[in-house]
Design goal:
The complex is a heterodimer. Chain A is mainly beta. Helices cover 0% and strands 54% of the residues of chain A. Chain A has strands at residues 5-7, 10-13, 19-24, 31-38, 42-50, 53-57, 64-68, 74-78, 87-94, 102-103, 107-111. Chain B is an all-beta fold. Chain B is built from no helices and twelve strands. In chain B, the strands form three sheets. In chain B, strands 2, 5, 6, 10, 11 and 12 form a six-stranded mixed beta sheet that branches. Chain B has a four-stranded antiparallel beta sheet with strand order 3-9-8-7, with no helix packed on it. In chain B, strands 1-4 form a two-stranded antiparallel sheet. In chain B, strand 10 and strand 11 (100-102) form a beta hairpin. Classes of the chains: A mainly beta, B mainly beta. The interface between A and B is medium-sized, with 24 and 21 residues.
Chain lengths: 112, 112
């Protein structure tokens, strides 16, 4: 158990819908990272927050957004969902920037 | 941009065989290098890491050496077990934005 929690574990929704994925980092970790794992694209970095501020952006679509709240939990919002958004979404946390990242169990999103 | 290339799988071995999974990288600076493991149905776990040239990371019988001259970080284990069956990811993190850049993953199957 890494100490990073993600909810829900599974999410099934329809095209065009909007969903929110939640991540609670390990106690004391200030940095949160979001990654997408799909069959065709592999693992890709989406976005990073550090102590509530966005620090780095990767291949994140404009339909996707994220935020980190004062209690350091983070949410990833996916809107206007398409079939191709079906993937495993991982959250990771670290104490600081550049520290070892610990991964949550992931949220499996299925868009029908 | 930075990238990681690792050997395609699946790699199928018998128990107690020697394992090598090749990983090479392209980076403009001096990245940190990682091997992560993903067991079936689980999240990503850090297996080992190396932060500078000639460093050797090791854990659970696995080893990898950071070779700057060949831009490689090959994963090795002297005697694999059935329980090592998993997907192994090579990744790098540059020291400016700390996002992890991933290889495609190599599925390892160990037969008893």
């Amino acid at each position: 158990d890494s100490g990073v929690t993600q909810t829900p574990k599974h999410l099934i929704t329809a095209t065009g819908q909007r969903v929110t994925l939640r991540c609670s980092p390990r106690s004391g970790d200030l940095s949160v990272y979001w990654y997408q794992q799909s069959l065709d694209q592999g693992l890709q970095f989406l976005i990073q927050y550090y102590n509530g501020e966005e620090r780095a952006k990767g291949n994140i679509l404009e339909r996707f957004s994220a935020q980190q709240f004062p209690d350091l939990h983070s949410e990833l919002n996916l809107s206007s969902l398409e079939l191709g958004d079906s993937a495993l979404y991982f959250c990771a946390s670290s104490v600081g920037q550049g520290s070892e990242q610990f991964f949550g169990p992931g949220t499996r999103l299925t868009v029908l | 941009g930075d990238s990681v290339t690792q050997m395609e799988g699946p790699v199928t071995l018998s128990e107690e065989a020697f394992l090598t999974i090749n990983c090479t990288y392209t980076a403009t600076g001096y990245p940190s290098l990682f091997w992560y493991v993903q067991y079936p149905g689980e999240g990503l776990q850090l297996l080992l890491k190396a932060t500078k040239a000639d460093d050797k990371g090791s854990n659970k019988g696995f080893e990898a050496t950071y070779r700057k001259e060949t831009t490689s970080f090959h994963l090795e284990k002297g005697s694999v077990q059935v329980s090592d069956s998993a997907v192994y990811f090579c990744a790098l993190s540059d020291n400016s934005n700390y996002q992890l850049i991933w290889g495609a993953g190599t599925k390892l199957i160990i037969k008893p």
